[in-house]
Amino acid sequence: MAHGFSDTSRRAQAMQYAILRQLSPSRRGALALALSRTVLLASRRGIVLRYPQAAPHEVLAQAVRINYAVPALPLVAWSASMLADPLLAEAVQPVMALFERLQVVYHLGGSLASSLHGMPRATLGIDLVAQLEPAHIPVLVAELSPQFYCSETEMQEALAHEMMFPSFNLIHRTMGVKIDVFVPPPSPYLESRLARSVAIALDEQTPATIVRVATVEDMILTKLLWYEAGNRTSDRQWGDIVGMLAIQQATVDWEYLLAWAESLGVTGLLRLATDQAIDGAS
User: Fold this and answer.
1) φ and ψ at residue 80, rounded to 5 degrees
2) Which UniProt keywords are present, listed alphabetically (predicted)?
3) Would you say residue 75 has pLDDT above 80?
């Protein structure tokens, strides 16, 4: 199991949890967005230093290949005559707006959502969970393709899969930001998770970007499922789980969390994470 060596003392860790506990979700989100932008810009800068003659669309193509480990896309996929600032909140807005116009039930998930509830950290992309139907696919392609690289075939394949985490990708044509849209098959837990999502300001801008976000309990459960599915090897997933438990332990709906943990088969992992969170916060 991961989560061994740490370069942070227990006292410093407890102090960090205490400070983050006092921050609003939007402040934690702003920190995560700033960290993410810094990492994405640094990645681009490294490519430009290595290939100083590269055109903007070539830099984006290289950055996407390196950052997201996806196959190289044709250069015609990029419409960048100049590199746009990789702003995650701005990149995801047209997708969320389209979902709302189509009355698609969705919420923000992944590391950005766990940053709102727990430890802010950099993330290279955005995760959305959505209840999509095949009839939505042509509309998504028509509406999003001017701004995003997207594949109708990948969307169809994702909707046809019965695995736990089927998804397709959207990649912003000028920012190079990747959005993963997860389309899990119907289940009682998915229904519960989507129904319980809450509206949270993603940042501290005026006006703020308001997003539907999975609750802290559902983010903990989802991260536990991902951690288990990854053979319990991801330090990042584990750190997100422990951070949310440490920062939100006084407000978590433990009855809901424990009931679904048992139903989903992650009770043992939840106990381990809770023990580590309590130890780290004290």
Assistant:
1) -85, 115
2) Plasmid
3) no
Average pLDDT over all residues of the chain? 90
Length of the chain counted residue by residue: 282
Q: From CA 247, how far away is CA 135, in angstroms rounded?
A: 41
The CA distances from residue 115 to 180, 186, 221, in Å, are 17, 26, 15
Whether this model's pTM surpasses 0.85: yes
| Residue whose entry in the numeric block shows the structure tokens 């989507």 | 194
pLDDT exceeds 70 at position 198: yes
Q: Phi and psi of 179, rounded to 5°?
A: -115, 125
What whole-number distance in Å separates Cα of residue 114 and Cα of residue 106? 16
For tokens 């690289």, the residue is 149
DSSP annotation of 22: H
Residue 83 is classified by DSSP as P
281 with 250: CB under 8 angstroms?
A: no
- Amino acid at position 140, single letter: L
- DSSP secondary structure, 233-276, as one string: --HHHHHHHHHHHHHHTTT--HHHHHHHHHHHT-HHHHHHHHHH
Q: For 128-186, how does the pLDDT look when each residue is reduced to its tens digit (9 = 90+)?
A: 999 999 999 999 999 999 999 999 999 999 999 877 789 999 999 888 899 999 999 99
Q: How far is CA 151 from CA 77, 90, 157, in A?
A: 11, 21, 10
For 86-123, what is each residue's pLDDT tens digit?
889 999 999 999 999 999 999 999 999 999 999 999 99
DSSP readout, 171-229? EETTT--EEEEE-PPP-HHHHHHHHT-EEEE-SS-SS--EEEE--HHHHHHHHHHHHHH
Both tokens of 216, joined, read: 């802290």
Burial of 267 (0-12, 13-18, 19+ CB in 10 A): middle
